[in-house]
């Protein structure tokens, strides 16, 4: 059972806009930035968005996030076949001496 | 460029311990937290621990407290993760990752070390 809750799957057709939600609590998402990771098969997770809406170099602006209280959402516009991957949200959590918590992941299928 | 190079795959028997290393290069080692994250086959990432290389202060996920020890050697820019009392449930890819302060931002990841626990 992951601390952050994500839907297990999402899908869309090329060109569509899809969103993936991430729900937490006041000790994590409600107090700290949500970071999003993309994982392609056989590779390490790759940081996609950090500090709520900053993108590392090379990440297209088709990826964006929004936040509301203890929830966050990743939006992918102009969906492309190469976006088919697993997506994870993660956040700092104030419990113990400060920990990182992940969502269980959402498998995005491009139909 | 920032690189995190991890030690090679390990095969261990149940009840044994394993130590995985992660050598950092391309930046000032003591300036960034280092995290350990594992991923079992077909599962999502599971955060285990972080270490502040400057102070040596660590934090562990509740699940791993008492079972995992993270240390560092600043003279060789290397962090170590030791996991004890292994069971088959510990079979996973183990990653180190460079973090930014007290955030969940893990920007660079090592290549991963496969630990297989089998009798």
Molecular structure report:
The complex is a heterodimer of chains A (about 110) and B (about 120). Chain A has about 110 residues and is mostly beta strands. Chain A is about 0% helix and about 45% strand. Chain A has no helices and nine strands. Chain A is globular. Chain B is mainly β. Helices cover about 0% and strands about 50% of the residues of chain B. Chain B has no helices and eleven strands. Chain B has strands spanning about 5, 10, 20-25, 35-40, 45-50, 60, 70-75, 80-85, 90-100, 105-110, 115. In chain B, strands 2, 4, 5, 6, 9, 10 and 11 form a seven-stranded mixed sheet that branches. A four-stranded antiparallel sheet of chain B has the order 1-3-8-7, with no helix packed on it. In chain B, strand 7 and strand 8 form a beta hairpin. Chain B starts with a strand and ends with a strand. The interface of A and B includes residues 51, 88 and 102 of A.
What's the layout of helices and strands?
The complex is a heterodimer of chains A (111) and B (119).
Chain A lengths: L8 E4 L5 E6 L10 E6 L6 E4 L13 E6 L2 E6 L8 E9 L5 E4 L3 E5 L1
Parallel strand pairs in A: 1-9
Antiparallel strand pairs in A: 2-6, 3-4, 3-7, 5-6, 7-8, 7-9
Chain B lengths: L2 E4 L3 E3 L5 E8 L8 E6 L6 E6 L6 E3 L7 E6 L4 E6 L8 E8 L6 E4 L3 E5 L2
